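Long-time lurker, first post. I've been practising inverse folding by hand and with some scripts of my own, and I keep getting stuck on stretches where the structure tokens seem ambiguous. Below is the full token string for one chain I'm working on. Before anyone asks, I'm not after the true native sequence, just a reasonable design that respects the backbone. If someone could post their per-position residues I'd love to compare against what I wrote down in my notebook.
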């Protein structure tokens, strides 16, 4: 983390298949989480549906970051590339290699 100090950064999250039980998302017993996102410029979520992750949105109110949601992983990669966080086709191919293969 020390090497990241002062540099801008982005996050790519693959949320496909992630489910939050209603009992968790509606529970009043939650801890406040404070993350230092001063240098974060972008957060991309790959989701199954565009409402996925809604339960997490209250944690972003003070961050200045609004996660961008994509159902197509390629669109998420393009967003990161357009913002300058993915600089080569090799990086995109490496990300694609992490994709689960269809059965």
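-- Answer (accepted) --
I ran through it position by position. Result:
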């Amino acid at each position: 983390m020390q090497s990241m100090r002062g540099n801008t950064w982005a996050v790519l999250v693959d949320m496909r298949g992630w489910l939050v039980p209603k009992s968790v998302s509606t529970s009043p017993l939650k801890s406040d989480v404070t993350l230092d996102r001063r240098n974060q410029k972008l957060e991309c979520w790959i989701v199954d549906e565009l409402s996925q992750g809604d339960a997490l949105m209250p944690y972003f109110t003070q961050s200045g970051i609004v996660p961008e949601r994509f159902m197509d992983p390629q669109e998420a990669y393009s967003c990161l590339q357009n913002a300058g966080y993915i600089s080569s086709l090799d990086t995109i191919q490496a990300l694609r290699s992490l994709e689960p293969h269809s059965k």
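A couple of notes from the structure itself: The chain has a mean pLDDT of 82. The CA atoms of residues 43 and 80 lie 9 Å apart. Happy to go over any region you disagree with.
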